[in-house]
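Tutorial, part two.
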Amino acid sequence: SESRHQLVDYYGQLTAYIFDPYSIALMKIDRAFERDLEDIYFLIHNGYIQIELLEKYLNEVAQRSDEPIKLRKNFEEMKRGL
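Running the prediction step on this input gives:
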């Protein structure tokens, strides 16, 4: 897990991380609620994930998914919102 987290910021003595932002984004793409898409936009716009790498991971997950068409459709919808 050490390689899958990214520093967000320091808040006094508290250090905040996002753990595995690509897994978070993929889960949110699968659900595709409006708030989920907003969270993904936040991750992209703030540099926590790159859309090209997210698409690569999505394609890998879609190959093992029970609903690959839905997953890819949700991803395309998310990209249109960028």
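The chain is about 60% helix and 15% strand. In part three we will examine how such features are distributed along the chain.
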